[in-house]
Amino acid sequence: MTETTRIAAFSVLVGIAVLAMKTLAWWVTGSVALLSDALESIVNVATALAALLAVRIAERPADDGHPYGHHKAELFSATLEGVLIILAALFILREAWAAWAEPRAIAAPALGIAITGIASVVNGLWAAYLVSAGRRLSSPALGADGRHLWTDVISSAGVILGIGLALATGWLWLDPLLAALVAVNILWSGAKVIRGSADELMDAAVPAADLARLREIIHENADGALEAHDLRTRNAGRATFVEFHLIVPGEMSVLDAHAICDRIEAALKAEISECTVTIHVEPEHKAKASGIVMT
C-alpha cells in the first residue's frame, strides 16, 4: 500500500470519528446549525471514500486500454466531491428555512459546543496535513479533501460563535441564519472544487510559474540544439505531460540528437517526479525563431 493510499484510508476513519462527534452534538442540542455541521461531515465521509477509491485506481500502471495511465481517476473523485458538497448545502438550506419559520430552543448548549469544538480541532489538524500531503504527493484527491475540510472548520467556528450569540441575546433566529450562512460557504467551496477539477479534465496547461521553470530546464540542458518551440503541457492528477519540438542542425546525427533529448528528459523528470516527455526532433529549416532559442 502506497503512502497516498494509506493517507486516504485514514482520512475515512477521521471523517467517521468527526461525524460521530458532530451528530452527538446535534442530538443533545437540537440546533439546526449543528445539524448543518453534522450533515457536512456526512459529505466528508462520502468524499473520503471516493478519494480512497480514486487513489487506488490512479495508482494502477498504464495498460493497453489506458496507455496514458489512470491518473485522471483522482480528478473524477474531486469533481464528485464538489457535487456532493453542493447537494449537502442545498439540504442545509432547506433545514434552515424550516427552522427560520419555527425557531427552536437549544438544549444543553455548553455540551454541544464543547463536542463540536473538539471535532473541529481534529478536523483542522487533519485538513492541514491533507493539504500538505496532497501538494507533496501531487494528489488532487487528497488536496481537494483537505481544502474541503478547511471550509468545514471555518463553518464549525462560525456555528459555535453564532450559537453563543443566540444564547446570550435570546435571538433564536440566529441559529437558522447561521445554518444558511454555512450552506452558502459550502456552496462556494463546492464550486471551487468542481472548477479546479474541470480545468485539469479539460487538459489545462500547468501554472505559469511551473511553465517558466520547464522552459528554463529545457534551455539549460539543450546544448547542441538550436531552438525548442510549440511547448505544450497538461496535468492529469499527479502526472504531468510535456511535449515540444526541438530544432537541431540538419547535419547532426540521430545518435547526437537523441542524446540531447535524453539529457532534457532526465532533467525534466528530476524536477517533476511523474513526468512524461515527448520531443519531436526537426532540422533547422523548421525553426520558428520563437519559443526557447538556444543560440
From TrEMBL:
Membrane-crossing ranges are: 7-28, 75-93, 105-129, 149-171
Q: Which domain of life is it from?
A: Bacteria
Q: Where in the cell is it found?
A: Cell membrane
Bilayer topology reads: Multi-pass membrane protein
* Domain (Cation efflux protein cytoplasmic): residue spans on this chain: 207-284
Q: Where is the Cation efflux protein transmembrane domain?
A: 10-202
Pfam families xrefs? Cation_efflux, ZT_dimer
GO BP, one example?
Answer: intracellular zinc ion homeostasis
The Swiss-Prot or TrEMBL record describes its family as follows:
Belongs to the cation diffusion facilitator (CDF) transporter (TC 2.A.4) family.
Q: What is this protein called?
A: Protein p34
Q: Which organism is it from?
A: Roseivivax halotolerans
